[in-house]
Amino acid sequence: MIGLSRYRNFHDPVGVVSRALRSGSRAARRMLARELAVVLLTPVDLVLSVHEQRLEHVGERPSQHPIVLVVGPPRAGTTLVYQTLAHHLPFSFFNNLSSLFPRSPITACKAFNRFLPSGELNADSYYGNTVELGAPNDGFHVWNRWLGEDRYHPPSHLSVQQQASMRSFFNAWNHQFDRPFLNKNNRNMMCLELLDSTLDNVTFIVVKRDPFYVAQSLLKAREDVQGDRSIGWGAGADDGQLNPAASPLEQVADQTRRLYEQLEMSERRVPAASVVDVQYEQFCRDPTSFVCMIRERVWGAQATSDHTLGTIAPFHVRNEDRLSEGEANELRRLLEY
């Protein structure tokens, strides 16, 4: 979630609210409603957290269920991949309801998920924020326990106690829901090695997209979220390496290039068997093949007999030039097309 005042990487939080409302996006309006609900439900969350602490003690017993983490640069299509897998395969995942109870997500989901309606896949999103209460959520309300509230700079290491706490949480989650776990969080692309060394039986689905359209979308996000093209947004936007004297086009080109370089380096640092690469454009054209591949990878020989899967309609590849011809040509030049 954008997180408003709960995260410090956003310029002009009041302006974020105004721009989200003016966007006309239903996902944006629901995001704002959930931010208010988090405050109103705090007393309930505190009560449920007592039971949550007991559950996490159970997490000291390892779980055999796989953990599947979707990662990739911001604006690369990670949310769509996450939504599709969560809808078509029997994963458990952090949903928007869980984000209303940051102190007790396991207890709240166990108690209230049964009341959530199920239906067709709603692929709408607003910068990673989905619409329905039962829809997938990035899970910052959980990951921040160990990785902190800075959305752009995860820690390079965790203490022994923090690692044990993370393992206990996910073991407890998997014991309660008794199925493989799925999550997408773009910040996690910056700490693959850390997560691989902390969590058991983890697979990373790494989503990549034509860098031009990532950079173009980062520029649009600056306008929509920060309200100003000159203010950075997304991982790698404020790590001290962006030249403040550079133009916004130069900055997003440099940001995108470094994100892909870092992702490539991170992939090399974890076992190749733990990584599944997917190109956004190919996924949109043939989501069925990708979902079938993940189904077989996670469920193995049981996949065909236990999980039915029809044909998934292709998604529109949102790779359209939204800049003027001159800016588009300049951005491609900066990305060395």
What's the short story on this structure?
This protein has helices spanning 13-22, 26-40, 42-58, 78-88, 96-99, 105-112, 140-147, 160-177, 192-198, 211-226, 248-268, 280-285, 287-299, 302-306, 325-334, and strands at residues 67-71, 92-93, 181-184, 202-208, 275-279. The protein has 337 residues and is of the alpha/beta class.
What can you see in these coordinates?
The chain is α/β, with parallel strands linked by helices and 337 residues long. The protein has a single domain (4-334), classed as Rossmann fold (3-Layer(aba) Sandwich), CATH 3.40.50. The chain contains 15 helices and 5 strands. The protein has helices at residues 13-22, 26-40, 42-58, 78-88, 96-99, 105-112, 140-147, 160-177, 192-198, 211-226, 248-268, 280-285, 287-299, 302-306, 325-334; strands at residues 67-71, 92-93, 181-184, 202-208, 275-279. Strands 2-3-1-4-5 form a 5-stranded parallel beta sheet, sandwiched between helices. α3 (42-58) crosses α8 (160-177), α10 packs across α11 and α11 packs parallel to α15. The radius of gyration is 20 Å and the shape is globular. The model is unreliable at 1-7 (pLDDT under 50).
Oligomer: single chain
Q: Into how many domains do the coordinates divide? A: 1
* SS-derived structural category: alpha/beta
What's the architecture, going by CATH?
3-Layer(aba) Sandwich
Widest sheet: strand order? Answer: 2-3-1-4-5
- Biggest sheet layout: 5 strands, parallel
Order of helices and strands: HHHEHEHHHHEHEHHEHHHH
The poorly predicted ranges are: 1-7
> Could you tell me the strand content as a percent range?
5-15%
Mean of residue pLDDT values:
90
Helix content: 40-55%
Instruction: Tell me the CATH topology.
Output: Rossmann fold
- Strand tally: 5
